[in-house]
Amino acid sequence: MFTHYLDLSWRSFKRTPVVSFLMVLAIAIGVGVTMTSLSVYHMMSMDPIPEKSNQLFHPQLQTVDEGVKLWTKDGMPRQMTYQDAVNLMNAPIPERKTASVKTGFSVHLDASTVKPFSSAARLVNRQFFEIFNLEFINGATWSENDDLNASPVIVIDDYLNNKLFGGGNNVGKSINLDDGQYQIVGIIKTWDIHIKFYDLNNGAFQKPEHIYMPFSLVAARELDNWGNTNGWKFEPSNTFQDKLNSERFWVQFWAELPDEQAKQRYGEYLMAYMQEQQKLGRFNRDELVYKLNNVEDWMEFFSVVSKDNKVLVALSFMFLAVCLANILGLLLAKFLRRAPEVGVRRALGASKRQVFYQHVVEVSLLGFLGGTLGIVISQLGLWGVRATHSVYTNLATMDATMLFASPVIAIVSCIIAGLYPAWIVCRTTPAIYLKSQ
Amino acid sequence: MLEIKPIINAMLRSKVGAILLLIQIAITTAIVSNAAFIISDRLTYLKQDTGYHEQALFTFNVMTFGRDVNIDQQIELDEAMLRQIPGVIDASLMQTIPLSGSGSASGFGEKPEPEEGKRVRASYMFGDEHALNTLGVKLSEGRNFSDDEIVVHGSDGKQTAPSVVIASKAFTDEMFPEGNGLGKTIYMEDKPVQIIGIVERMAGAWLRDSKPFNVLIIPLVKTDTIQDFVVRTAPGQRAQVMAQIEDKMQALYDKRVVREIEGFDLLKSKYNAKDTLMLRMLVVLIVVLVLVTALGVFGLTLFNISKRTKQIGTRRALGARKSAIIRYFLVENALISVSGLVIGSVAAYLLGQQLMKVFSLPALPLSFIVFTALSVLAMSLLSVLAPAKRAADISPSIATRSI
Fold it and tell me: What residues of B are in contact with residue A238 (Cβ under 8 Å)?
C-alpha cells in the first residue's frame, strides 16, 4: 500500500509541478538555513572527548583577597598561580594530573634544508598524553626523572615530524628550539580536535601545539608564557622568580577523576590545601571556594558557543516556522483542489484513514525531497561561512549526525504542516462531489 | 467604497488561509526588524574609525634564535633598513599591535599603587619617537617624545622607568573630565609619568574592549628575542613592501624567523570574524525570509482566486469592473497584512527584549519596526498584484458556463 501511495504522490507532484516545486523549495530553503546555523552550533558544542569528558576536571581556586572582584563570569580565576599548580601537581591525589602552559620557540635543525620556523609548544608533565588519550606512533612519554630534572626532552606530533624529517621514526634525534637542544622521545598522532578544550584562554578554535615538554622546564629555562597572564593586585615583578612566586594566574591544570568518589575526595583535598595555604598567609578570605569543572562545564564557562550562534539558531527555527506556515497554506490549497477526486474515492469505498494516510505519505515525500535539496542549500551556506574566515574551516562542516538530521527535520516538519490539510481532505463528504459531477 | 464588510465576511468563511498568512507576516516582521537592528549595530561597530589608515599599515613578528648578535644593535639596524625600503613612510619596533586582539592593559591612576584612588583602564603600547608617525596618528595637543625620553630595557638588564607618556583623548577625557589633561601626572603602578601629548583618536589592542579608544603610548623599547614591528607605507605600496620584508630581514641576519606579516585590515577582520559572520548570516536570513513570505502570499492568493473563479465571474457578469476585482484582493490582503503587522510589531518588541538580555544592545528603536512593517506591507501588496490581475481577467462567461 505504501508504494502505491508513493506512486500516487508522485503523480500528484507531476500534476501540479509548479506548486509542488515551490513547496519543495520552501522546505529546502527553511531546512537549508536552519541546518547551516545548526551545523555550526553543533560543531561548536560537540563533546571533544566523549569517552572522558566527565572524568577530566579543571579545578579553580579562589585565591583573590576578600573584597576583590575579578572580571570573570563567576568571579573566580580562569587559571592558576604557578605555586598552586606545582603544589597540586606534587599532591598525592589524584593519580593522573598535569599542569599546563603554552610557550613557543623558533624551531631549527643544525644542518637541514628546512627553513627555521616558529612553533607553539606546551609544557606539561608526563601524564598529559595518558590523560587526554593521545596515541603514540613511536616512542613514549618522558620518564618521571625527566619531569623532576627538567630534562630537555620533547614529544612532537606527526605533523611536525613530517615537516622536519619528512616522516619516519625519529625518536632519539635532537632538534633546536631557540638556543637549546632537545631530544625527541616520542611521536604522537596529530591531535585532531577542532575545539582546543584543554586551553580555551586564547580562543576556542585554535590548533593544538605540535611540541610537548616537561613542565619543570618553565622554571629551569625561564620560558615565556605564550598564553594569558592576569593579576589582581600590585606585585613588583623584576625577575622571573618574582613571577613564579606571584599571585598572578597563568597556569592551567587538569586532573583525571574517574568517579564521583574520586571527585569528592579531591574536593576535600583542595579544601584542606587551601586551609593549609591560609596558615601561610595566602587566601585572605572568609570563605574558601573551589570549583571542579568537567570538560563541558569548562566549555560553557568560556562561552565556546557564542551568543551569536545561539541567536542565529533561534532565528533560523523561527524562519523554519515561517516556511512551514507557507507550506501549510500551499498544501491546503493543493489538497482541497483535489476534493472532488477524493469524494469519488471515498464513494468507491476508501476509508477516511486510508485517505489520511495517503496524504501523509504525500507530504512526507515532499519533506524528503525538500530535505535532500536542503542539504545542498546548507552546504552552500556552510561554504559561505567558511569563506568568511579561516577560523571556521573546521567548524562549518556537516558531520553524519547533521547530514541525517536534515531530511528528518524536513520530513517531520512537513508532516506537522501536512496533518491539518490531510485531516480536512479526509473529512470530505462524498455526496457533495458526486452530486456536482 | 472599499467593501470591507463583505471582504471580512468572505474571509471568515475560510479562516485558515488568512490566519496562516497573518502568522507568516507577523513572524517575518518580528525577525526582520530585529535582524536589521543587529545588522545596523554590527555595521556601525565594523565601520567605526579606528584612527588608523589600515590599508597602509602592516606588522610582522621576528623570533631571533641566534645568540651571536647584540639584539639592541640589531634592532637599530633593522629599523634603519626598513625605513629605507622605497614606499615605506616609517617603521618602528612596537609592543602591542593595535587591533590585533592581543596586548596589555592596565588601570592608570591619579595615585601611586597600592594607594586607593581613581583608576582608568587603558590598553598600552611601547614605542619610540617613531611610533606616532609609523601609526600615522595625529597629536591634537602637546608634543612627540624626544630622543632622550625613550627608555631602553636592553640586554644590559638595566631597567629605568619612563617619565613621560602620550595618551589618547578618550583616556584623558575620562581621567580628567574637567579637561586639560596635558601636563598632568598619572601613575603606572607606583611610577609617575607626565602626559606630554594627546592623540585625537586611536584604537587599542581590542576593539571589543569596554574602552577601546583608551590608549597610552609609553616611550619604552624592550629588546627581546621576540619582536613586533609596525610599518607604514605610501598608499598602494604596501603589498610590494610586504612581499620583500622576509628576504630583507633575513639578508641582514638569518638566525631568526620572520613571521605573521599581516596588514592591519587583515588583523582587524580576523578579530572581527565573528561579527562579519553574524552580519552575513542575518542578511541572508532577511533576504530569503522576505522571498519565502512573498512566495507564500503569492501562492495563497492564487489559490483563493482559483477557488473563487465562479464568484469572480458572477461579479464581473453583474457589472463589476476589472479594477474592482483587483481592489478586492488588494484590500483583502491589506486587511490581513495590517493585522499581521500589528501582531508582528508586538512580537518584534518582545523578541527585542529577549535579545537585549543576550546582547548588550539598546532597546529596539521604533523606527526599525515601522520601517520593516511598511516594507513588509509593500512586499505583500506587490505579491498580490500579479494574481489579482489574473483574477480580473476571468471572463464573466465562466459564471454561466459551468452551471
Answer: 159
Q: Does B299 contact A333 at a Cβ distance shorter than 8 Å?
A: yes
Which residues in chain B have their CB less than 8 angstroms from residue A22's CB?
295, 299
A108 CA: distance to closest CA in chain B (Å): 9
Question: Is A297 near chain B, with CB under 8 Å?
Answer: no
Among candidate residues A242, A306, A9, A393, the one with its CA nearest the CA of residue B208 = A306
Cell of B100: 590585533
Nearest CA in chain A to B67: A179
Between CA B76 and CA B70 the distance in angstroms is: 10
10-residue stretch averages of pLDDT, chain A, 437 residues long:
83 81 87 90 89 94 85 87 94 93 92 85 96 95 95 95 92 92 95 92 89 95 88 78 90 95 94 92 89 93 87 89 86 81 84 87 89 92 88 84 87 87 82 65
Using CA atoms, how far apart are residues A315 and B43, in angstroms rounded to an integer? 19
Would the CB atoms of A323 and B159 count as touching at under 8 Å? no
Q: In sequence order, what are the residues at sequence separation of 6 or more whose Cβ sits closer than 8 angstroms to the Cβ of residue A349?
A: none
Considering only CB atoms, B296 lies closest to which of A326, A336, A385, namely: A326
Using the Cβ of A65 and the Cβ atoms of chain B, whether some distance falls under 8 Å is answered with: no
Residue B67's contacts (CB-CB under 8 Å, 6 or more residues apart) are: A179
A320 CB contacts (<8 Å, ≥6 apart)?
Answer: A30, A31, A33, A34, A409, A413
Distance CA B293, CA A331 (A): 15
Backbone dihedral angles phi then psi of residue A78, each to the nearest 5 degrees: -85, -25
Q: Do A178 and B24 touch (CB under 8 A)?
A: no
- Looking up cell 512537513 gives A414
**ipTM value of the model?**
0.84
With 0-12 / 13-18 / 19 or more C-beta atoms within 10 angstroms meaning exposed / middle / buried, residue A85 is: buried
3-state SS, residue A265: helix
Rounded-to-integer distance, Cα B138 and Cα B51, Å:
9
pTM higher than 0.90 for the full model? Answer: no
